């Protein structure tokens, strides 16, 4: 459905997209995950032909994307980071206005608008002006305006930034429902938990490059970390830390504020071996966690830095 090849975008000296390659298939919820400034919004803007790029090709629905490709644009719903609604119109009037850009027929539009209101859970707020809404409700209105015409492809750029947990859940559930009804979705975020929760495939961006792409299982199998063990409230000497680093399957240790983190390759009994060692050395410890790798671990192993801000 979407094919981006060797996309290069410069802002003056800054290389914002560095030969980006992405392919999105019909029916996917495709996640673009990357820290702030990694190029997600720039990639979306180039994809929508809102921004000129220096090199590369962008195909949407099998055709080159261009500013005047209205046939493609009609079938795309866009929810951008900045809320773009009219302050002087009510919630319902705003949704009706944006839906009306694509759907002329009054009766059909009416039912689409009601459907969108229900979908984002704004039934109790239809007469309010945007200024009267909380940040989370405003974001939901922004989403309703972008999707009311029921497009085939929906592009959402960080729709849950600075949103309360209730609205966030509503938004994430809504995205999954839209997908189940047949929409293909591109979802950008720097929240790895969200991307893990809803996306069928994920591209991880860093400095304008796609550093890894695949299902979450594929991404996690690319890295060495099979298990991350955390032990809180433990007092260790340098020699203890060195000894733990030498245990089988351990390839990285970190110790800070009496908290030990041990990264192991996937193997049985990693935790037992570490706890046995501490007990043998008469070292007391507090809470213990063993976690499977996260997308943050994928990012950390590939780039050497944390995905979190
Ligand atoms: N109009 C612009 N002029 C100059 N530099 C820009 C412009 N827009 C973005 N940049 C820079 O390009 C890089 C990529 O920015 P972009 O907004 O695409 O990243 P992002 O991953 O979407 O980040 P965020 O999550 O913060 O929106 C950043 O270094 C940013 O500062």
UniProtKB/TrEMBL annotation:
One of its GO terms (molecular function) is ATP hydrolysis activity. The keyword Plastid does not apply. Residues 2-232 form the ABC transporter domain. Pfam families: ABC_tran, DrrA1-3_C. The keyword Cell cycle does not apply. PROSITE patterns: ABC_TRANSPORTER_2. Gene3D superfamilies: P-loop containing nucleotide triphosphate hydrolases. Keywords: ATP-binding, Nucleotide-binding, Transport. It comes from the Bacteria. InterPro entries: AAA+_ATPase, ABC_transporter-like_ATP-bd, DrrA1/2-like_C, P-loop_NTPase. This is ABC-2 type transport system ATP-binding protein. It comes from Hespellia stercorisuis DSM 15480.
């Amino acid at each position: 459905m979407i094919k981006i090849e060797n996309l290069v975008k410069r802002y003056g000296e800054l290389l914002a997209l560095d030969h980006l390659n992405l392919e999105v298939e019909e029916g996917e919820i495709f996640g673009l995950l990357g820290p702030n400034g990694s190029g997600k919004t720039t990639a979306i803007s180039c994809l929508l032909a809102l921004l000129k790029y220096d090199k590369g090709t962008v195909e949407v629905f099998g055709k080159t994307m261009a500013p005047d490709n209205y046939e493609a644009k009609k079938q795309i719903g866009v929810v951008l980071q900045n809320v773009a609604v009219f302050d002087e119109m009510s919630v319902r009037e705003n949704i009706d206005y944006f839906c009306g850009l694509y759907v002329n027929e009054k009766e059909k539009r009416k039912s689409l608008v009601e459907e969108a209101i229900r979908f984002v859970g704004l039934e109790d707020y239809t007469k309010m002006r945007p200024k009267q809404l909380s940040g989370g409700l405003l974001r939901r209105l922004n989403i309703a305006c972008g999707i009311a015409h029921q497009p085939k492809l929906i592009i959402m750029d960080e729709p849950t930034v600075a949103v309360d947990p209730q609205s966030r859940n509503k938004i994430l559930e809504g995205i999954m429902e839209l997908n189940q009804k047949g929409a293909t979705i591109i979802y950008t975020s720097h929240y790895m938990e969200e991307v893990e929760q809803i996306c069928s495939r994920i591209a991880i961006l860093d400095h304008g490059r796609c550093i890894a792409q695949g299902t979450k299982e594929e991404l996690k199998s690319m890295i060495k970390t099979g298990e991350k063990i955390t032990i809180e409230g433990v007092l260790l000497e340098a020699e203890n830390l060195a000894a733990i680093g030498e245990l089988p399957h351990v390839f990285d240790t970190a110790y800070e504020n009496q908290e030990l983190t041990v990264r192991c390759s996937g193997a049985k009994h990693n935790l037992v071996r570490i706890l046995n060692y501490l007990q043998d050395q008469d070292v007391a410890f507090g809470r213990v966690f063993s976690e499977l790798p996260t997308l943050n671990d994928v990012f950390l192993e590939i780039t050497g830095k944390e995905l979190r801000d």
